[in-house]
């Protein structure tokens, strides 16, 4: 256990946040200043991927999609990637590969962003290509470009 949290199963969500003009939001992790990403998060026990997507969107950005009448789009797609060695202690024993469920959401131009300071220190809106270039993970890059 980590901080009294159960060890994670190797399943997560990726939620790409974008505006109508395809500008994309990236958020900077607190534990790695070079790690810019879309919203991500582990799927909790008993949660479906779409429920996790709504929860993580709210936790990491303050965007309450349901309250705002916004719908997260389920891409009906998963990516798999090797879990960073420095993160493996967070996962159940022998977990090496994570399965990531892909989602996106189009938000209004004037949407307010409120970060969780325990997870992220900054955010930036970039053009689709700039966001893809800045995103740390290859799967995040690919999904930004696939919008």
Highlighted features:
single chain, 147 residues, alpha+beta, three-stranded antiparallel β-sheet
Structure commentary:
With 147 residues, the protein is α+β, with helices and mostly antiparallel strands. The chain has a single domain, classed as Nucleoside Triphosphate Pyrophosphohydrolase (Alpha-Beta Complex). Helix content is 22%, strand content 32%. The protein is built from four helices and seven strands. Strand 2 and strand 3 form a beta hairpin.
How does the SSE layout of this entry go?
Blueprint: E1 11-18, E2 24-29, E3 36-37, E4 39-42, H1 49-61, H2 65-68, E5 73-82, E6 97-106, E7 120-126, H3 128-134, H4 138-145
Helix pairs in contact: 3-4
Would you state the CATH class?
A: Alpha Beta
Structural class, by secondary structure, is: alpha+beta
Name given to the CATH architecture = Alpha-Beta Complex
| Mean pLDDT across every amino acid position | 94
Tell how many strands the DSSP assignment holds. Answer: 7
Look up the CATH topology: Nucleoside Triphosphate Pyrophosphohydrolase
Q: Distance N terminus to C terminus?
A: 37 Å
The major β-sheet equals: 4 strands, mixed
Kindly report the spatial arrangement of strands forming the biggest sheet: 4-1-6-5
Task: Based on Cα principal axes, name the global outline.
Answer: globular
Percent strand equals 25-35%
Q: Count of helices?
A: 4
Number of domains: 1
Instruction: Please write the string of helix (H) and strand (E) elements.
Output: EEEEHHEEEHH
Rg, please?
A: 15 Å
Unreliable segments of 5+ consecutive residues: none
> Percentage of helical residues?
10-25%
CATH superfamily label: Nucleoside Triphosphate Pyrophosphohydrolase
GO molecular function, one term: dihydroneopterin triphosphate pyrophosphohydrolase activity
Protein name: Dihydroneopterin triphosphate diphosphatase
InterPro entries: DHNTPase, NUDIX_hydrolase-like_dom_sf, NUDIX_hydrolase_CS, NUDIX_hydrolase_dom, Nudix_hydrolase_domain
Keywords: Hydrolase
């Amino acid at each position: 256990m980590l901080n009294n949290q159960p060890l994670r199963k190797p399943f997560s969500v990726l939620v790409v946040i974008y505006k109508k003009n395809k500008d994309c939001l990236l958020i900077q992790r607190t534990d790695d200043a070079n790690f810019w990403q879309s919203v991500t998060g582990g799927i909790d026990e008993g949660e479906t991927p779409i429920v996790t997507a709504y929860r993580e969107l709210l936790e990491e950005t303050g965007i309450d999609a349901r309250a705002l009448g916004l719908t997260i789009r389920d891409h009906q797609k998963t990516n798999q990637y090797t879990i960073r060695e420095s993160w493996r202690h967070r996962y159940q024993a022998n977990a090496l590969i994570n399965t990531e469920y892909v989602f996106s959401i189009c938000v209004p131009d004037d949407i307010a962003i409120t970060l969780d300071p325990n997870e992220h220190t900054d955010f930036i809106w970039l053009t689709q290509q700039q966001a893809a270039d800045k995103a740390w993970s290859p799967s995040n890059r690919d999904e930004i470009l696939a919008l």
